[in-house]
Design brief:
Elements (H helix, E strand, L loop, with lengths): L15 H4 L20 E14 L2 E14 L3 E5 L6 H8 L7 E6 L2 E2 L5 H11 E5 L10 H6 L9 H14 L15 H12 L6 E5 L7 H18 L2 E6 L2 H4 L4 E6 L2 E7 L1
Parallel strand pairs: 3-8, 3-9, 6-7, 7-8
Antiparallel strand pairs: 1-2, 1-4, 4-5, 9-10
Length: 265
């Protein structure tokens, strides 16, 4: 939300009535008249994640309040141990909070069963990792297509969508290549295409440029930004890279498990 930063709470979100406001009625978020207010995808309220190590409680995430809107590209920044990776895992429904709430598309993830969370991850969240995580014995197209297998998409449709996505990321001529025949940047673009395979609402990217040189990292970020616009997907990136963070809409800086700053890039 353009006017909502790290201290926002779910109560600050914009309801459906706000989206229908006309030019004669200002929006609740302070958006210009005549424009629909931003729509929240994630709403985090007093979010906590505590681990126990050697009998000692360690708070990895401390009382985080955050709203992420549809269509935003947000970077989570901070040194090792700041809590950004733990927060990213919570956003990806890969972990569960020990306190507070995390709502995704108005659903409280804490109240969902393991089966429901598995379905959510398969259908609505795409993942991009630092180390690509491609299957070495499958071609680029097969690596993208296999992501659709759990959702019972017909094989012909899987391959057709894989080809279309690889065309979108500029890898059409190399879709038949194994990962070993692709550069690091090309492998990451395959991973991005795979993340989009099931039409997700959000892509969760953990250090997506961490293994790439500066120029290749910029190319990958340009690919993400272009697909964010064309596919209408939200992107949340955990990164140590200042140059990468500057290419996002919002920079959320963390330290000791808390949000210290939330500002436009």
């Amino acid at each position: 939300m353009a006017g909502t930063r790290g201290e926002a709470t779910p109560e600050d979100g914009v309801g459906k009535d706000d989206e229908k406001m006309t030019e004669t009625e200002p929006t609740a978020s302070g958006a210009p008249k005549g424009r629909a207010a931003p729509e929240a995808l994630y709403e985090l309220s007093r979010l906590e994640r505590t681990f126990t190590k050697g009998g000692v409680a360690v708070k990895a995430v401390r009382g985080v309040n955050l709203v992420i809107n549809r269509g935003e590209m947000v970077s989570l920044e901070g040194p090792s141990g700041s809590g950004k990776t733990t927060l990213l895992q919570l956003l990806g429904a890969l972990d569960s909070p020990t306190g507070g709430t995390i709502r995704f598309e108005e659903r409280d993830l804490s109240n969902m069963s393991d089966k429901e969370l598995t379905k959510l991850r398969a259908e609505e969240i795409g993942f991009v990792f630092q180390h690509f995580n491609l299957i070495p014995t499958l071609t680029a197209a097969e690596n993208v297509a296999i992501a659709m297998f759990p959702n019972h998409v017909h094989s012909r449709e899987r391959l057709a969508r894989a080809r279309d996505l690889l065309d979108q990321v500029g890898l059409g001529p190399r879709m038949g290549h194994l990962p070993s025949r692709l550069s690091g940047g090309e492998q990451q673009r395959v991973a991005i295409a795979r993340a989009l395979a099931n039409h997700p609402s959000v892509i969760i990217a953990d250090e997506p440029t961490g293994n790439l040189d500066t120029d290749t990292a910029k190319e990958v970020m340009a690919t993400l930004n272009a697909l964010r616009t064309s596919a209408g997907v939200t992107i949340v990136i955990a990164t140590h890279d200042e140059d990468v963070a500057r290419l996002t809409d919002r920079r959320v800086r963390m330290r000791d498990g808390s949000i210290r700053q939330d500002s436009a890039a």
